[in-house]
Amino acid sequence: MSLPQQTTVLIVGAGPCGMAAALSLNHQGIHDIVIVDALFAGENSSRAMVIQAATLEALNNVDCLDGLLSVGNKVETLGLHDGSSYLLSTDFSLLSPYTKFPFALGIPQTYTEAGMLEKLDQLGIKKKEMFEVRFESGDIITAKYVIGADGAHSVVRDEAGIVFKDPNGDEKHDHGNLSQLALGDVAFTSPPQLATPNEGVSLTLSNGNFTLFARFPTNASPDKSRPTYRIVCSVPVADGTAPHAPSAEYLQSLLDRVGPPTLSSNLAVNPHPTRIDHVYWSSRYRTRSAVADRYFAPTPNGTGAVLLIGDAAHIHSPIGGQGMSLGIRDAISLGPVLKAHIVESSANNQLFEDWAASRRQRAVSVVALTKETMGIITAPQRVWSPIVAFGFTILRFLGRFTFVKRMVAYRLSGLAEI
C-alpha cells in the first residue's frame, strides 16, 4: 500500500487511541490524515476489556458508539470480595444524574478496534499497514503534526526526546504479588456458579493477591457454543516469571491458589468444581507506572507539533480498567485543540501546552488511583493482619451506604477526570 508524500496529520499507531484521534479530527473537519501501524488489521489481541462512562460520552461525541453498544455488555455492578467474603459492590447505575451512560461497557479491545475501523472506513480514512513504522521501504512522509499513539515503547516519544518515568520516582516497580499479572480469555468445563451471579465484574482479594473475573459479551465470544470469560490473576512472587502465554494448567493453578472458591477445581474448596479446559488467548503483564514528562513538543520551526496520547503518554496497572479509556479521552480531546491551532495558522503553542498539562494531570491522578487500589490489595503482605482485618471490616460497613457506592463508581467511571 503506497504512502502519500505529505499530510497535515500523521498518526503513528492504529489502536483504539490512534483511531479515536482520527475520528475526533474528522469530526472537527480535518480530513488530511494518515494513520500508520506496525500491525496488520486484526492482529491485536483482546487485551482491554472495559470502556468507562466518561469515555462512552467522548465516543458518543464523535458518533462512534452505537456499534460498540450493540456488542458489549452494560456492566452496572462491580463486586469486591475478600476470599469468599463480600466486601462491597459498586453500582454504576447510581451515576445516572451525571451521564447518559450509567454503566461500564464490557467489550474486548478487538471489537472496540473493529467498531472504530468500520467508522473510519465509512469516513474514507484508511489505515496504512506495514511491518515497520520507520518506513524501511524508503518512503518519507512530511507532516505538520505527528501524533504518537504507538504504545508504551513509543518510537515517537523517544525520537522527540521526551522522558517517560514514574511520576513518584518509583522506578523499582515492586508491587509484591501484583508486580506480574496473568490474563486469559477462557472457557470452563462447566459454568462457574457464582456467589453473586448478577455481578458484571467480580474482584477477589486473597492474602495480597488479586483475581478479576468477567463474562464476555455473547456477541463477542470467540466460541458461540459456550460462555467465555476474562480472568486476570496476580502471580505470587514465589512463582518467578510468568509464562509469556500462560497455559490452561498454569492459569488454573493460579485460580486454585489465589482465586475465589467458585473458580476452584478442588472439590474440597468448591462444591461445584470447574476447570479451565480451553484458552482462546492469554498473556502476562508486568506492572509499571510511567507518565511522559510532557505530551507536547514543538517542531524545530515552531509551526507544527509532536503530541502524545494513550500508552505513549502514560501507563499504569490495569486494575480498575482505566488505561484504554483514559487514552481514548486523550485522543478525542485533542481534536478541537489541533483544529484551533490550524485555524490560527500561527506558532501559538499555548493551546497545546494547556491541553498537554491538563491531560498529564489526569494521567497522574489515574496513576495515583491504581496505586491506592494496589495498596489495599497488597496490605496483607505489609501490614499486621489484625489491622488489615479491621480495615476490611470498616470497608464492608461503609460499602452498605449508597453514597459510598456512588463515590467509588464516580471515580472509576472517569467522570471526575473529564
Spatial order of the strands forming the largest sheet: 6-5-12-13-14-11-15
Radius of gyration, CA atoms, in whole angstroms: 22 Å
Major sheet: 7 strands, mixed
| Helix content percent band | 25-40%
Mean pLDDT: 89
Beta content: 15-25%
Domains, number: 2
CATH architecture of the largest domain: 3-Layer(bba) Sandwich
General shape = globular
Kindly provide the name of the CATH class of the largest domain: Alpha Beta
The class by helix and strand makeup works out as alpha/beta
The succession of helices and strands, N to C, reads: EHEEHHEEEEHEEHEEEEEHEEEEEHHHHH
Give the helix tally. 11
CATH superfamily of the largest domain: FAD/NAD(P)-binding domain
Low-confidence stretches: 40-44, 129-136
- Number of beta-strand segments: 19
Q: What is the name of the CATH topology of the largest domain? A: FAD/NAD(P)-binding domain
Task: Give the distance, in angstroms, between the N- and C-terminal Cα atoms.
Answer: 38 Å
GO molecular function: FAD binding; oxidoreductase activity, acting on paired donors, with incorporation or reduction of molecular oxygen, NAD(P)H as one donor, and incorporation of one atom of oxygen
Cofactor: FAD
Keywords: FAD, Flavoprotein, Oxidoreductase
InterPro entries: FAD-bd (IPR002938), FAD/NAD-bd_sf (IPR036188), RIFMO-like (IPR050641)
